[in-house]
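Hello Y.,

Per our agreement to keep a running log of every chain we model this quarter, I'm adding this entry. I've kept the format consistent with earlier entries: sequence first, then predicted structure.
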Amino acid sequence: MYVITRTARPALGKTQFFTGNPSVLVRQLKVKKGKNIYCDGGAKVINELLRHNLVDELIISVTPLLLGQGTRLFNDGRPEQALELVNTKAFDTGLVQLHYRRKR
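Predicted structure for the entry above:
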């Protein structure tokens, strides 16, 4: 597991702390043995990966709370990417998850 952070730290068990560009890390992981790369993170990390076409699927969680301010989920400067809806899941708390896959 990798944690993308601004602060360099030594590894903690199986957790590595990565201070570089997330797209570089994902490219390095894609050439290694293994199947899937799962990224759970904020808009800065996701936008960096989208900008470099490194995201195959998105699960977007919508919460029943409207914020007055905050970081945009999708920023300018990335290529347009067509998506297809795979699944939706609603929770008793009002949270809804939208699962999309990139169209090829």
